[in-house]
Amino acid sequence: MKKLTLTAMAISLSISLFAQEKADQPTLQKIRQEGLENSKIMDIAFQITDVAGPRLSNSPGLKRAQDWAVQQFTSWGLKNVHLEAWGEFGRGWQIDKYYAATTLPYYHAIIGAPKAWTPSTKGPIKSEVILIKADTITDLAPYKGKLAGKIVLFDQVTLQPLAPSYKPDVVRYSDSTLNKMAEAEIQPQGQRSPRAGAANNMMAQMMKMRATRAAMASFMKDEQVGMILSYARGSYGTFFTSNGAPYALNATPVSPELEISAEDYLHILRLLRAGQKVEMEADIRTSFYDQDPQGYNVIAEIPGTDRKLKEEVVMIGGHYDSWHSATGATDNAAGAAVMMEAMRILKTIDFKPKRTIRIALWSSEEQGLFGSRGYVAKHFGDPKTMVLTKDQKKISAYYNLDNGTGAIRGIYAQGNTAAAPIFKEWLSPFQDLGATTVTLSNTGGTDHLAFDALGIPGFQFIQDPMDYNTRTHHSNQDTFDRLAEEDLKRAATIVATFVAHTAERKDQIPRKELPKAPEAPKK
Amino acid sequence: MKKLTLTAMAISLSISLFAQEKADQPTLQKIRQEGLENSKIMDIAFQITDVAGPRLSNSPGLKRAQDWAVQQFTSWGLKNVHLEAWGEFGRGWQIDKYYAATTLPYYHAIIGAPKAWTPSTKGPIKSEVILIKADTITDLAPYKGKLAGKIVLFDQVTLQPLAPSYKPDVVRYSDSTLNKMAEAEIQPQGQRSPRAGAANNMMAQMMKMRATRAAMASFMKDEQVGMILSYARGSYGTFFTSNGAPYALNATPVSPELEISAEDYLHILRLLRAGQKVEMEADIRTSFYDQDPQGYNVIAEIPGTDRKLKEEVVMIGGHYDSWHSATGATDNAAGAAVMMEAMRILKTIDFKPKRTIRIALWSSEEQGLFGSRGYVAKHFGDPKTMVLTKDQKKISAYYNLDNGTGAIRGIYAQGNTAAAPIFKEWLSPFQDLGATTVTLSNTGGTDHLAFDALGIPGFQFIQDPMDYNTRTHHSNQDTFDRLAEEDLKRAATIVATFVAHTAERKDQIPRKELPKAPEAPKK
């Protein structure tokens, strides 16, 4: 298969092609001025993070943030503003009290959080911490009848001491990294990883581990254990949350479970391994919300004005939900705020787009891109069968932002060789902001995939990593403090121009070949 | 004044001088083997940190650690093992419970700790957080009568948002930095900073600020404020403690005061500034220990065996006390453990020193080098009058370790030009450990200064900074996890050889000119 690089393509496409690729100059000028000089990005981000709080799927925090967005969109004069159900998610959940400390060998307050969707302790509890050495369910037999009300910690023999990090927490992409991205070859579509065998093997192991874990969880629940302590990745007071307990309305009940900072976990583990008695007290209260199991996205529009083209749509979005141990500033209040600010900019400069512009703030991205997948399933078709709706053809492109607070440095063309040179042209005015890279590479893990899976051009921007991977992504330290104002301003400005270009362009954004259905269409 | 560099000196001193500078080769060999291959350093550090806990001056944690050290020294067969009072310190203090969280606009558990020596809250408290805008005591007038039982936070207008750090948290010294240290010129003794005027000015400002603060603290106490929130430097869940409240037996009572992480403080501050209501709950319990206000050092010896020289002493030490929000692993369990391990090594290899070797684990270093200063005042003389005891002449040298967990890279000769080449020679076998740098520079801030002030050669080793300045020094993250095993092993080995050399050397370590008395001797 012939491989193309972007540079080769860019040269092969003549300038004449680009005449139709631009929104008009005065519009671009106004976007830039409003975005860089009258930005409201930090006010928006403040509301989503500090004011609304953690935004776990279907939690009161997410509801607060959604209600605020509806009110905000309405006050800006957007149309068709509404919460739109995408399907059944399950129960909401939030923390009402977190308190945990060792009381022996001495008092020490513990940094941590209950795992999402785990229940309260039976009021304030106090117990010796029991070290459990068990890799399999049969290893648990000796503990039977001894754990009721007890706080337990598993001796993870493979757990390594924390290693010092000689690298900075916060990084930006270097020119050379960006150049490599720009030169990346297109990944042939449908090509599977060459190590599919290894992946299957890993998957089998994971399934086995998951089964063991489920059996152990069930044992713990039956034994009426007081609380389980879990190791949370991270260091220096930062900890990362992992997947919580099941959130389905009919989920099997689990034990109270705390994720605690690596330092606190290792502290207790070292003491227990040395035969020291460790005692803890804890008081965890969590609430479940079962009343409305539907999940919702926030939708709003700037209606198109062209007689023909207004039926077509440019979509932008980012997920609005977060994990529970912080206010999800970089994951993904940042992306949501940038997209909201892009809408505000376009509305404020009184842009009258040919095509309709629609923003979607997704929910339940963290549990599996549910909000965006539910939305596209409802509106555009079924990715399993590739039976598509009429509306699938009307979406010119979807642009997503969900890689933290870092400056936009360009865009992932997601293997769309025809779109790439168009984006290259659109980014050319942003040389001063360092945002000119177009890569054919795919990027995954977020909501543009839901569109891509249905053959709708879906893109995610390239962003400087900052401290996303080292400190903030799913951590207790994903707070407003992490937001880089200048980067976010610029991001909103760039996104707004992409939206304007896409809305004004004569043709829709070119599409890749339609993905093949993994399942045959149902009759 | 002629300035000397160490390189120039090293060249000018002929090799003949060094014949007497060495302990015998088999002893050095045994030290190296025991120190690097049979190390007990991590066991020792584990006891001081994880098992004993935080070791604030006169706290039960320090007492536990001291009792353990006495028992450990005794079990190793050291002599003259005892706790020795250095003078009156004041009250002990410890945390018995720490719980704080916002409850409005939503629930969020706060990372923090009570300031050392602050009192308990009046049981569990719950209150709106009141934003106080006041730079002077008169600015407080409008708050009179409104703060009883309330949680308050000062609007520090100069407080900056947290800035991203593009530098690594953990660093080691580069060769070029070490070379620069080695080339440092001697700082002429008694020379004051050229900016004494500026310093006086700063001091005056500080005194004024301190007076304002005291007046404000008194206002808060009189108003029976429920709790004061203080901004703690740091980021990502790490916070640094600062000086606490007075610890004297007759200290003026203060209000309960929490230091909370920068993220949590700024979170509340942003909300309050935006006019959002913030409510908090807290339950702080602290205990004071007034029974024995004396401060103690732990002392132990390996007695000298030479008929004449055994009256002379080589001293090593490090402070044993810590701050309260962690287990003080790098400040200074590391240094204390290294010094203890050095004693263990020397005892284990059955070293029979000519001079007596004495270890001192100081207390109350954190409040002003009180343990070491009290000790030298009792044994060696008064630095204010420079009236000296007979014993002052008997201490050949004092070696200190208190700059974290980092590898020893050399030693600060503290302006002692005659000692420097001796140390250079002693370090020459440690090229493989990267520990060969001798600098004439002074280093301050720790217990060797107490000796230096009385004309006794007192030295501190050069150590790789690691994360001492960025993450651990006085922070809630100064835990066992931060200890670098290999570095500590090597440090103990190097220190043990310094002790052996000093114990065996024909002459004492050469002395600098005696400091001049800042006050005339009392009659």
How would you describe this protein?
The structure is a homodimer of 523-residue chains. Chain A has helices spanning 6-12, 25-37, 41-51, 60-76, 175-182, 196-222, 262-273, 329-348, 370-379, 419-427, 448-452, 468-472, 485-504; strands spanning 79-88, 92-104, 108-109, 112-114, 125-132, 151-154, 227-232, 257-261, 279-289, 294-302, 313-319, 356-362, 381-382, 387-388, 395-400, 408-412, 437-439, 458-463. The first copy, chain A, has 523 residues and is α/β, with parallel strands linked by helices. The first copy, chain A, folds into two domains: 17-89 and 293-504, Aminopeptidase (3-Layer(aba) Sandwich), CATH 3.40.630.10; 98-163 and 211-288, Glucose Oxidase, domain 1, CATH 3.50.30. Chain A is elongated. Chain A starts with 5 loop residues before the first helix and ends in a 19-residue tail after the last helix.
List descriptors.
homodimer; 523 residues; alpha/beta; Aminopeptidase; Glucose Oxidase, domain 1; eight-stranded mixed β-sheet; elongated; golgi apparatus (chains A, B); zinc (chains A, B); endoplasmic reticulum (chains A, B); lysosome (chains A, B); protease (chains A, B)
